[in-house]
Amino acid sequence: MKQFFKINEISKLYNIGPDSLRYYEKLGLLAPKRGKNNYRLYTLDDLWRLNIIRDLRRLGFPMEKIREYMDNRSVENTRKLLTEELDVIHQQIQELNRLQKNVEERLLTLSGAEDQALLKIRLLTFPDRFCHTLDIPYHTDEEMDLLVKQLLNKNTENLYIISNHNIGSFLPLEEIKKEQYENYSGVFIIDNSGEYCLRGGTYLTFTYAGDYRQNTTYIPELLNYADGHGLVPDGPILELIWVDNHQSADIREHITELQIRVYPKS
After folding, report:
1. Which of 46, 104, 256, 263 has its CA 20 to 30 A from that of 243?
2. What is the pTM of this model?
3. Under 8 Å CB-to-CB from 216, ≥6 apart: which residues?
4. Does the pLDDT value for residue 1 go beyond 70?
């Protein structure tokens, strides 16, 4: 068995760059010998050390902690290190389980978008829904995208943008009356930790595919339906996004849902 390995051999064996190997040497974690022409020659002891570095770095252990362990190896310190490794692994398993559940829910949302009843006015009952909001008026998709990205920081563990049908905008009735269908008053993301409440109750809903500018056709139809059925609109129209440019570049696949809270005329 070889006793010495050159830096390029170690680099290929561990899939690690020569600069990293030199950095580990600078930190005192490796101590290669010097051969002819001052070439670094790594020993079996260096290989053992690299195995430890690789395993602990994979778990996110800082270099200082790795060096501290190597400089003070004992049965007790090894037991402590292994216990810490196990704790980190458990934390990572919990995080992966959370991410798995999150992605599974988003896949269900995408399937739910495909199953939406399009071009049908429906009366649905919703409970109170809490959300994060930004009450900043905007007009363009680019402006909305920027605002939504700010909202995502409200709950970085549970909020996401791809396949999240809880993202939407407020469209005030005052603007609708002036036939201004792109004068949004703000954005929201429905989330249980939110500070703002979308009041529960009966909502008229309408879902359509394609360009959101079809609001100029469908919002008047929704309000005419309410008027013809003795229903009074209460509050802004909620425009919720099921599928947009984050899921598909084909605008024909975009799906938008309109919701407006209503109550019977007295």
Report:
1. 263
2. 0.71
3. 179, 181
4. no
| C-beta separation of 212 from 239 below 8 A | yes
pLDDT at 216: 95
Burial class (CB in 10 A: 0-12, 13-18, 19+), 87: exposed
Residue 259 has pLDDT above 80, yes or no: yes
Is residue 152 predicted with pLDDT exceeding 90?
A: no
Rounded CA separation 24/63 (Å): 9
d(CA 122, CA 110): 21
Quick one: pLDDT at residue 155?
79
Average pLDDT, the chain: 90
E strand residue ranges, the chain: 5-6, 33-34, 40-42, 122-126, 129-134, 167-171, 186-190, 196-198, 201-209, 231-233, 237-243, 255-264
The mean per-residue pLDDT over the stretch 19-30 comes to: 89
Closest CA to 186 of 214, 146, 153: 146
CA separation for the pair 175, 187 (Å, rounded) = 16
126 HSE (CA, 13 A, CB side): 18
Size (the chain), residues:
266
Q: Percent of the chain at pLDDT above 90?
A: 46
Beta-bridge mates of residue 40: 34
Distance CA 169, CA 238 (A): 6
Copy the structure tokens of residue 149.
């990205």
Is 182 strand, coil or helix?
coil
Q: Which amino acid is at 124?
A: L
Neighbour-count burial of 178, counting CB atoms closer than 10 A to its CB (0-12 exposed, 13-18 middle, 19+ buried):
exposed
